[in-house]
Write a structure and sequence with these properties.
The chain contains 4 helices and 13 strands. It has helices spanning 2-21, 61-68, 126-129, 173-190, and strands spanning 32-34, 39-41, 44-46, 50-53, 56-59, 71-75, 80-84, 112-113, 139-144, 148-151, 154-158, 162-167, 193-195. A hairpin with a 2-residue loop joins strand 10 (148-151) and strand 11 (154-158). The N and C termini lie far apart (83 Å).
Length: 196
């Protein structure tokens, strides 16, 4: 009788877990907007682009490193992001906040930098993954007339009322720039964007 009671007890526990423990997971839509919250360092205001994703602010690590005067770089050999308090330990030079890697001009506040949406090897970054998906499952971002989109060292001003940018995983970070440069050339030809 004790064995039978134990079987019923275990069966009841398993059924209870199946009924009440397996709560369906519902993915909520993510809300991604440019953050309007001011940032200060040691009491002084600084300009930095931030994205508010479902109520939390996200900053570009390189922008924050430049503001805090520290070094940050990606060590491909170790597949690791390295942060150095001594900038002399960083191989090469990193751009200052708001500056392109090649130093070709300052990026306006609120510009959409395509490379921020990708990690190394062309995979989408957390920011890219947080973008809403269209009906085909592609990650998309809608930009409006007057917005600046930065691809590599080039800046483009949106001339159309709005454009939807679709983000895909690319084979490499170099392919990301090549693909988006070609994409922008098509939009230049159609008049949807203009050189900024």
């Amino acid at each position: 009788m004790k064995k039978r009671g134990m079987v019923y007890l275990l069966t009841g526990i398993v059924i209870g877990m199946l009924l009440f423990g397996a709560v369906p997971v519902v993915a909520s839509a993510l809300t991604v907007v440019l953050s309007s919250q001011p940032v200060t360092v040691d009491g002084s205001p600084v300009q930095v682009t931030a994205y508010n994703i479902n109520g939390s602010n996200y900053y570009n690590l390189r922008d924050m490193a430049a503001i805090l005067d520290i070094g940050v770089w990606y060590d491909e050999t170790a597949s690791t992001v390295r942060i150095e308090s001594d900038k002399s330990k960083v191989p090469g030079s990193e751009p200052a906040a708001g500056e392109n890697k090649d130093g070709a001009g300052t990026i306006p506040e609120g510009a959409f930098r395509i490379t921020e949406y990708y990690n190394v090897n062309g995979k989408l970054s957390a920011l890219g993954e947080a973008l809403p998906a269209n009906s085909d499952g592609e990650k998309t971002l809608t930009v409006k007339k007057g917005d600046i989109v930065v691809v590599g060292d080039k800046q483009y001003k949106v001339a159309a009322d709005s454009l939807t940018l679709s983000f895909y995983t690319q084979p490499s970070s170099e392919q990301v720039i090549t693909w988006w440069t070609d994409y922008m050339k098509d939009w230049l030809d159609s008049g949807d964007v203009e050189n900024a």
